[in-house]
């Protein structure tokens, strides 16, 4: 499987999942936001859809990939700007590479309108199932289990 990232954002009781691919400019979000309508129970299916999108886009030539615009994610959440989206948002970032899955937690900074990473990073086996990654993401977003 080609390297990719899946970000899970939790904002005002809504879950949003967005895949990204590495590019010459770093990780770039793809033009795909999965709005999870059935809460945490729907997260594994949303992760699977986002991952399938990332894998399909990774198979394309870089010039043919569908990258997100600046407002793709805020628009999906009903926000005008990314700064508005960042206010009250907590995220879990899953970076999948052939040798492992890296899990990170990020929190919104309302004053500066950004989402920044926290110090903890967990490395999991590369074949960790999406159901398990969804459980870990929920734990990270809710600040449980040492997150």
Structural notes for this entry:
With 147 residues, the protein is of the alpha+beta class. The chain has one domain: NMB0488-like fold (3-Layer(aba) Sandwich). 27% of the residues lie in helices and 37% in strands. Strands 1, 2, 3, 4, 5, 6 and 7 form a 7-stranded antiparallel sheet that branches.
Q: How does the SSE layout of this entry go?
A:
Elements: E1 4-11, E2 14-23, E3 26-29, E4 34-36, H1 43-58, H2 72-76, H3 82-86, E5 89-97, E6 100-109, E7 114-124, H4 130-142
Antiparallel strand pairs: 1-2, 1-5, 2-3, 2-4, 5-6, 6-7
CATH architecture: 3-Layer(aba) Sandwich
How does the helix and strand content classify structurally? alpha+beta
CATH class: Alpha Beta
Total helical segments: 4
Fraction of helical residues: 25-40%
Radius of gyration: 14 Å
Main sheet specs = 7 strands, antiparallel
Please summarize what this structure is:
With 147 residues, the protein is α+β, with helices and mostly antiparallel strands.
């Amino acid at each position: 499987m080609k390297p990719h990232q899946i970000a899970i954002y939790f904002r005002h009781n809504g879950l949003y999942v967005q895949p990204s691919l590495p590019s010459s400019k770093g990780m770039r979000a793809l033009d795909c936001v999965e709005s999870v309508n059935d809460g945490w129970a729907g997260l594994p299916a949303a992760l699977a859809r986002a991952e399938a999108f990332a894998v399909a886009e990774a198979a394309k030539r870089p010039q043919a990939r569908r990258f997100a615009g600046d407002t793709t994610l805020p628009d999906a959440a009903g926000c005008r700007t990314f700064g508005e989206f960042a206010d009250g948002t907590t995220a879990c970032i899953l970076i999948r590479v052939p040798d492992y899955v890296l899990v990170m937690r990020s929190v919104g900074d309302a004053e500066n309108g950004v989402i920044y990473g926290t110090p903890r990073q967990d490395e999991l086996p590369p074949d960790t199932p999406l159901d398990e990654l969804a459980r870990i993401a929920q734990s990270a977003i809710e600040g449980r289990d040492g997150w």
